Amino acid sequence: MMSDKGKILITGVAGFIGSNLAARLLAEGYEVSGIDNLAFGLRENVPDGVDFHCLDIREKEVIPFFRDVDTVFHLAAKNCIADCQADPVETAEINVSGTVNVFEASRRAGVRKVVYAESSALYEGSSVYPTPEWELKPESFYAVSKLASLYFAQAYGKFYGLRFTALRYFCVYGPVQDYRRTIPPVMSAFMIKLLKGEQPIIYGTGEKRRDFVYVDDVNDFHLICIRDDRTNGKTFNIGSAENYSVLEILDKISRILGVNPDPIHKDDLPGEAQVTLADITQAESLDWKPKTPLDVGLQKSIDYIRQEIRAGRIP
Ligand SMILES: NC(=O)c1ccc[n+]([C@@H]2O[C@H](COP(=O)([O-])OP(=O)(O)OC[C@H]3O[C@@H](n4cnc5c(N)ncnc54)[C@H](O)[C@@H]3O)[C@@H](O)[C@H]2O)c1
Fold this sequence. Notes:
about 325 residues; alpha/beta; globular
């Protein structure tokens, strides 16, 4: 579909945030293309109307797919912290070399702007809460790979004039969240177990606190990144500025489902922060606000997981 709003390319379009973003951009009237090697994402996640290409971001042949593109959202990554800890080499290949390849293809093809995903994992070693953007203390291989992306983006900006915006997502949640990972994101993991009448697993004490932000709210900021030049060359925390413990989340999901949970406790996972809490002053200064109440976001996420179970996609 031709659109006078400009063409948007999403890497990682078959994943959680990428597929939600694609649906939102199509609804807003953008022409959307997407690439994904389907390593973690699913073809059926990609909304109808997206010009989809099954490709690896590390391939040198990606450049033609960046031609005539106005804005690239670079979301493809190896992003389960446990998987990244187990394979630092592949983490660097995908998250560092793959990202540099995306920046290079964008500059060669004359893309106007690249918006790319970092992570609150960059604050793993910090105990400043809420955490502002300059409080960089990455520890895990995943976090270090995301920090490398920032330095490459800055160098591309300085030496090649590449316009970019870095988005430091906190725990994004909502429908299509990838629950197939080695260790699924905590909300999906609890929903699956409780809906199936099984015992949820808590790693560690359950006191870890996370800043959760609903995917539609994240998409509101994505749209600002396309339109507002004040985002150029900057990094933004994208969270809700509220956090909940793992036990509180289990309690909230259980109440919505009307069940009494009996969790299994396992050893804590390596490489994970104890607390995340975003300082979102910078994003709010651009008239953005996370709007979705936790209970509403949880209900929509539960509806999605329930539908996946009914369809037999979650054994
Ligand atoms: N979801 C979150 O809470 C969260 C938090 C912080 C940062 N992030 C970052 O946001 C981005 C999107 O996250 P998500 O939750 O949608 O993840 P996701 O795993 O659902 O999606 C990532 C997609 O990238 C694809 N991909 C991986 N390697 C690829 C490669 N070499 N070539 C092409 N495609 C490849 C996967 O197949 C997958 O579809 C990632 O960069 C992630 O690190 C996400």
